[in-house]
Structure formats: C-alpha cells, structure tokens
Amino acid sequence: MHGSPPDDVWDLRRVTAADVPALVRGADVLGSGGGGDARPAGLMFGHAVGDGYVRLLDPDGATHLAVSFVGMVGAASAFTEELAGGGEFARALRAIERWSRRSATALASIEAAGLNGVTALATAVWCDLPVVDVDLCGRALPRLDQFSLAVVDGALPPLALALPRGQVVLVDGGDAVRCERVVRAVLAAEGGWAALATAPVVREDWSLEGPVRATRRCLELGARLEALGTSASPDDVVAALGARLLGAGRVVEVARHAGAGFGRGSVCVRDQQTSALLRLEMENEYLVVFEDGAPVATAPDLLVVVERRTARVVACDRIRRGDDVVVLQLPAPAFWARPEHVGRVMPRSFGLDVDPVLVAQPAGAAW
Amino acid sequence: MTGSLAGSFAGPGAVTGPAVGPSLASVRALPEWRSAVVLAGDPAGVPLSRVVLLDSPDELGTAAAVDALVVLAGPSWRTAPAWRLDAVLRRAADAGARAALLAGTEPLPGPTRLLCTRLDLCVVGAGGPLLDLAASAAVHLAAPEVAAARAVLTVSRAVAEGRVTAPGPLVDLCSQLLAVPVALTDASGAVLHGDPSLVVPRPDTPVPQRERGSDGAGNATTGETTVARPVLLAGLLPGLRSVQRWLVARVPTSAVVVTDDVLAAASTAVAGWLAADRTAVERDARGRAALLTDVLRLTGEPSPELRQRAAAAGWPMAGWHVGVRVRTGNTTDVAGLRHEALRCASEAGLQLVVAEHGDGWSGWWSSDRSPSAVEVRHLAERFRRLHNALRHITGCATGVGRPHQGPAGIARTLSEATDAALLAAGRPEQGRFLHVDQLGVAQTLLAWTRTETFEPAARSLLEPLLSDPSLVQTLRVYLDAESSLSETATTLGIHRNTAAQRVARIERLLGVSLNDHEQRLALQLACRAVGPRT
C-alpha cells in the first residue's frame, strides 16, 4: 500500500496478512504512547488470517449492521505475558449475544489503536464477520467511561468480559463510571486483562457515535512509515505523518510515580537544536507536552514519541533516559475535537489543570 | 533633623556599590536570608526592584513582575507535580521576574534546574518561614524609594515651613540630602549657587537631562551621571524661553532616580521664588514705563508731582542729558533683563537711567554741565561698548541722541536716539549702532525714507530685484561704495567678476543705467527704505 487509494477502495477493503506491518506501525502511532504494543496482536492476526482476508467496511455503508465492539481491556503487559489462547474474544462475543438475544452481524474495535487496533480484526477471522471501521476511541484512551458511546449515550451497552482463565463476567446497567470501576476491580482480581465484547449496536450515522476510519488511518500512516525505510530523518517522519514537530533530542529525565489511579510519569527531552526543555506528562498515554514550562500540545491530539534513528514509536512504558527521540503532535480524531466531546478527553479529564492545545485537522480528513 | 535624613538616605547606596541598584546578592546578604540556598539559575548580577507574593500562577499578568522576586507562597510547590513548578516558573519569567523564592532547601529536579537556566531565573530555597524572608526583602528593596520619599519630603517641608527661603540654602540642603555636589545655574548654565564645576549637559534643550559622566577628557565613563532639571516659568512672553534656571547634580548612576525626584521638588520651590521676584519686577517695570511716558510728553517745566515721582525713582531731570534707545524686538523679556542691561551699562562706565520702553529700553546719561565734544565722543564710545555687551544677551539695535538741556531735553534727546535706533536696525555693516552726531545732516534726512509713504514706492522700484536678496544687497553696497566694483566685492566677500555680473544683471532687471545720477540717488534711497534682509 503506497499513497492514498481513492475513497471507493475503502468502501470495502480486504485486510490481509500483508497489511500487518503497516497496521502495527500505524496502530502504535495512534496509541499516543499507550494502547499496548500492537506487534503481538499483529502476529496473532497474521497467524489467524493465513492467506485469507477480513472485510473492512466503511462506516457510511454500515448503518444496517448490528455491530459488537470487541477488544482487550486491562494491562497490555499482562496480555503480552499471558497471550490470548484465541478463544477469549469469541467467548465474550457469544456470551453477550446470548445475554442480549441478538446476533452481531459485524464487529468493530473498542479502540483502534495500539494492540486493540488489531484484536477486532483477529476476532473477525475467528467469528467470520466483517469489521466496520468505527471505534469508541479513535486513539488510545485509558478508561471505559471515555468510550464514545458512553459520552454520547451516557451509559455503555451491556458487555461481557472473557478472562484468560476461562471465566466470563457480564456487566449490564449503571453508568459508564460505575461500569469502569467494576471492570477494573475484576481485572485487578483476576488475570490483569480480559477480552471485552459489547452487545450488538445498530446506529443510523456512525460518525455521530464515535471516531470513524481510525483503522484506515492506521493503515495509511503505517504504510507511509514503512515506505520511509530504515534511515529516515525527523523531517521525513514529520512529512510522512503530517505531524507538527515539537522537538528532537535526548531524554534527560524520566520520573514515574504511582498514584491513586494509573501510574503517572514525566519525561523531559532537551531539544538538540534550540536547547528548549520539553516535558511530557504521561499516564498510560502522553497527555501534555510543555515547552520550557508552557503547554504547547495536549490530549486529545496524538502526542507521539518516535526513536530518531528508526522512526519506531516509543511507548510511555518503554521510554528511558538517554533515548534519542523526536516528539510529534498529530490532530485528534474529529469526533474528539468537537466542543461537546473534548471535555471528556482533554487534560483536565486526566487531572492536569491545563487548557487543550490542539492542532487543526487538515481539510478533508476522513477521520 | 535634615542631617539624620541625609544619613539614612546615603545608606542603601553605599551597600550596593557605585553603579548597581538592589540585587539578589544584596537581598541574600540580609540576616533573615542566612539559611537561603540557591537551587537553580545564576544568582550573580540579578537586579531586583520588588517582591511579588504569589498564591496562584493566574495572578501573574504579562509584565506584572518586572525585575521582581516572586515568592511561591501558595500551595506547596514542593509536592506538586514537576510540571506545575515548571509552569509557574515559566509564568513568572514571562511576567519579568528575575528570581523566585521556594520553601525547602532540597535540590530541584534536573530538568527544572535546566529550565531555570534557560529562563534566566534564579530560584532560591529557604528552610524558614517564607513570609519573613519576603518581608525583609520587600523592606530592603523599598529602602531607596523610602529614602527618596523622605528626601523629597524634607525639601518640601523645609520650603513650606519657611526654613529655607532662598536658592542658596536650598541648593545646600539638596547637596546635603543627596550627599553629592548640587548647583543652581542660570538659563545658560552659568553656576549661581553651589558647586561651580557642575555643567548642564544641554542648556538649550528645556527637558530634564541625564548624562553619563566622563572623566573630563571626555572618553571614559566614571559611573557617575549628571542630572539636570530645568526650572520652568510658563507664560512670560510669547516665544520666550521659559527655562529660567537649571538644577544640576553629579551623582552615582544608581542614585539618578532619587536625584531626579529631589531636584524636581527643589525646582518647584525655585520656580515659586522666581515667580515672586518676577511679579515685583513687572510691578516696577509698569511704574517706570508710566513715568517715562510722562517724561517724554514734557514740553516745558515738569509739574511738582512729576518732579517728586522722578526724584523717588532716582531719575535726574535737571542738567544736560544724552539719550539712548535700545530696540530688542518683542520676543525679548525686557523687564526680566533690565538689571542685565544696567549691569552692562555700569561695566561700560555709564551711570544710566534705564526704563522699559515698548520693544526695548530707553535711558539717558545726565551731567550738570554741557558735555564737550571730546566728552560726547567718549560717551559714544561707552554707549557702543554697552551696545556690544547687550548684543551678547539679545539681538538689538541701538541709537544715541545728542546732548540736550533740561527736563524737556530728555524727550528731545530720546527722540533723536529713537530715530537713530530705527536707522541702526538697517545698518548691519555698522553693527546696528548709530550716534546722531555721527549721522550728519544728510543721513538724518534719510530717516524720512522710513516713513510709510516712501516704503511702498521704494519697494515697487526695487520689485524686479526682490526675488533675489543678494541683488538688493549688492546694489546697496555698490552704491555706498561709490560705484566701485572692487570695493563692493571686498565688502560682500565675493569675486570682482561676480560683483560685475550682478551689477550688470541689476541694470538689466531694472532697465536703468547706474551711471545716471538721478537714478542712482533714487535707487540708493530705495535701498535704505527697503532695508537689509538678514
């Protein structure tokens, strides 16, 4: 895949094993430092799909479908340690179909970024269903109450969790914050991660329900990164991603502290050219970039750190002092940039008392 | 009392050295700051002017803390996330702060230290209560201003309470308060009171002035600044320079602002005295002008009442009188400069009566007996010296009359002097000074060419030349020089050929021949009437 294919190609796109490298790299970019390493999930999908394919449907043509959103919740590190046996996602889907007495006619990802950028596609192979290119995050987000359906509806649809040891937990009713609390409690008690599937949902216009075409964005960004080859300059990466360059230099400090919720951390990068001091505040994702103490970029935009030499994404849990990195800002999905939605994903929703600083979407962006 | 104030004023200046105001270094030398530790940034050469207590970073507007020490007194910045401390330091630096005070002496995180170096902000940590440190720093930083306010108050009170009533003691008081040399000069910068070595940098520019000092050779600065403040008196005469005096001081550069304030207070007092003096001068001038008018109207013997008034003014009316008329133009402060005119007269060896008269002065010299021809010639010499002295003060034309006897003789000799002054104004080549005795009958006759009927006729006769003033001048000089081209060229400082060309051009433009006696006479008279163009 090179360049942008015409839109009609994307009405029904066949995703094959050959797409895995681009998919994985794009999903890491949309992870904004979190979301979990997409590579294990990519391997899982490649193995499952073999020389077949998964149908990826544009959301505009998917209004008649009952879509179940699937994905992994919990700690990505736990998932990497205790890999999926393959049956968890199908088990969660079957359980919620049984509970809601409706069959899903299509799947979608709960979060088309990081490893969940691939899990829905793998599940689609196992369940023989198409995947609609709509999701609940459009990037990596840490909490279930930040899912777009929770923002739009105020509550989540019923959902099933399949734990890696075989148990299935059903969560129905209550608002999204309570739902998040219950799910976290279950994950803390058992296994650390679970396959999640929501009850099938039918909607008139998916673009009002959540970020759209994030998988297509993964594939396109990933393909452009792959096309750069092994020795790309920061300027090449900036051009390939259509990003804003915030700085490039060595990591001078990484400080991590455990807090009440997710662990917090702070990464300081000294720009090689200007000597400006970039401070990246992070939770599971990079949330705010300060330049010399002043905020210059914030969530929900994608704040992406890539290794300067390889242009590989450096996740929050992997960044170390001494890394030579490039710090980039990419526009958030249009869904989150809307004024009525931005409040759920802006820095204050993560406890950082900073106003959002976003870059504008390029004209005609599909996501 | 003023002595103790002067002492307290000199204090802070002495602490910080010659060219530096209060700084972080001087604040850190305070006893309350003994436990303070520099946590980030360079503490050297950080100027401070005030203390800003900060509870929340939102209190900082742009430039709200220029050269300030920001005290982070709000929530504990030590336990806040690092980005919050970074952010508040950045806000402080953006608002102009040069230093920050933080609770606790534990080291700051590396990136924050790097940031402070980048922001040129020095962070100081202290174990003790921050407010104690902040208060002592605030008092220390305000000390120069407090001392300046005290000095200004001392000047104002000394004047208001009548302890200082003249410029001399006032200059002494300022000098004592500021502990530097101070002087009061006249409008031209000549020292009247105080240190005679002080110089007004630019006496022609009526604005407060500061000039970095030089070592006399004019090359190296010595850390001293000359501060000069004009004493202004508004609304005397249209076009009159309203600067009457200058107050000047040479001070260490750090004390410039204070000096400015003290001199400003002193200048108000000086201006007040000047205004009072001025009122007296104006009153006297009005009296003299009225008396002079009555004397000039005199045809026979004066009335006893006029005699008494003249005697009271010290004006001799009996005997022989030689009048002098000085015309200065109406932009000169004749009332204010009368004593200067008197001084010039006595320096020229003349005991004169001088009175303000229209656009200048009228005066006369008196003697009991008729002056001899030699005496008149000597007198004329002294009047010329007086005229030359006055020309340094104001552009003027001076005429001197012939001796006349008795009270009515004053009017007569002054009338001749007035005519002579009128002619003198048109005679730059004679230094704008004319003595009626030297005029001769013919010259005196020329006076009538100044009349209003002759001048328009003369102007129309010379009309073709008026567009080029050099032609009129050349014509006048040529005719005065008895039609000698070489003398004309010498007088005008031009080449003989140029003079010849101009004369030819004049003849062509006027359509006349300068060999014609009648034409020459008419043109010579017309040149007198139209007058020289300066």
From TrEMBL, chain A:
UniProt lineage: Bacteria, Bacillati, Actinomycetota, Actinomycetes, Kineosporiales
Residue ranges of domain S-Me-THD-like C-terminal in the record: 177-356
Domain of life of the source: Bacteria
SUPFAM superfamilies noted in UniProt: CV3147-like
Any Pfam family matching the protein: S-Me-THD_C
The organism of origin for this protein: Quadrisphaera granulorum
Domain S-Me-THD N-terminal positions: 19-172
Protein name: DUF917 family protein
Alphabetical list of Gene3D superfamilies matching this protein: CV3147-like, CV3147-like domain
Annotated coiled-coil segments of the chain: none
TrEMBL record, chain B:
Domain PucR C-terminal helix-turn-helix: 471-529
One Pfam family cited in the UniProt record for this chain: HTH_30
Region (Disordered) location: 195-223
Residue ranges occupied by any CdaR GGDEF-like domain in the UniProt entry: 300-421
Database matches in InterPro entries: CdaR-like_regulators (IPR051448), CdaR_GGDEF (IPR041522), PucR_C-HTH_dom (IPR025736), PucR_C-HTH_sf (IPR042070)
Family according to the record: Belongs to the CdaR family.
Listed PANTHER family: CARBOHYDRATE DIACID REGULATOR, DNA-BINDING TRANSCRIPTIONAL ACTIVATOR ADER
Protein name in UniProt: PucR-like helix-turn-helix protein
